[in-house]
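sorry for the late reply, my laptop died twice this morning and i had to redo everyting from scratch. anyway the thing you sent over, i finally got around to it. pasting the sequence first so we're on the same page, its 344 residues, then the predicted structure underneath. double check i copied it right bc i was rushing
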Amino acid sequence: MALLTAEITGKTLASRYEVQKLDHEELLGAVYTAKDLDSGELVSVKVLHPHLTEDREKFKRFGREITATYMVSQQNTVEVTDWGEDGELHYLVMEFLKGHTLEKELEKGPMPWERVVRIGVQIARAVGAAHQEGIVHRALGPSNILLLENAVEGDFVKVLDFGLSKLEKVEDDEETGLTTQNTRVGNAEYMAPEYIKTSKYHTKGDLYSLGALMYHMLVGKPPFTGPMLDVLSAHLSEEPVPPSQKVEGVPGWLDKLVLDLLGKTPEERPGAYRVVQQMETSFGGPLDPPDLYALDASGAVVIPEGPPKVALFLGVALLVILLGALVVVGLIVAFALIAAVSLA
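ok and here's the structure:
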C-alpha cells in the first residue's frame, strides 16, 4: 500500500475533513476516521490506492456519479457523501460506521446456518439494488462486508466499494487470459468463472461471489482453496463439495441454493431478489436487519439505560398489589350479589 499513515493522520483534507486515525487498510485504499469540520460529525474517509486514480478525469467522473442520487441507495450499502482531491491524495467520504469485516469474523470459524442466512440475505439485497442501477461490484469478498457493532441484536450488514471497479484499468494478459488487475481487485477464492475465462464480468458474477461467501461462512473456508492458479482452475472445472457434507445441520434447501449460486455459467445462478425470496420463504418469514443503537460524537455506541432495578421491582410489586386488590373487590361484589339474590 503506497500510503503513509503518519502523513495522513492529523491532516485536514480540502480544509474540511480532519483525519483522526487509521481504521484499517484494504485492497483498494486505506480507511480513516475523520471529523467533518462543516457539520461537526464523524465521517469515514477512504483514501484510494494510487493505481485507481492515475486517470484524474476518470476519477472526477466517478466522483460525480457515485454521489449522484441514482447511485446505490439501500440500507445495506454504504452511503458515499463526498469525494475530492488533496494534492496527490484522492478520497471518498462515507457515512461513519462502527464495525468489523466479515473477514475478521470468519477467523472464528464456521457460523450457524441461521446466521449465514441472515447475513447472506442482506448481501443479496445490496447486490440486487446495485444491479438495478446497472452497477456491478466485481470484487465482492469478506474484506468488503462490514458487520456493524452497534446492532441491537444480531447482524446488520453493510457492503462496501460498489462502483469502484469503474476506476480499474482492464487489460488482458496474453499468457493467462486474465485481466492484469485480477490479483488486486478480485479475490481468486470468490471469483466467477466467466470473469476468469474471458475477463468480462456479468452481473451474475456477484451472485457467484455471494455463493462462495455463504459457503465460506457455513464451512469455514471457501469452496476452493490453495495456490491461486489452482483455485482459478477449480472455479472453471471442478464442482464444489456440498456444504452439508462438510458440516452437520445444513438444511437441504440452503445446500442447493449455495450450489446453484456456484453454477459455472451465469444462466445457472438465481438473481439477487430471487435469492432473497427463496431464503425468506424457506426460513419461514421476513429476514429484516436488526435495529441500531445510536453513536455519540466520539463514535461510541450509545445503549439506552433501562429503569433502575429497584424502581423496576417496585413497579412490578405495585402492579401485583393492584391486581390483587381488583380480585378482592371482584370477590366482594360477587358475594354481595349472591347474598342479595338469596334474601330476595
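The two ends are 98 Å apart (CA to CA).
thats about all i looked at so far, will dig more tmrw
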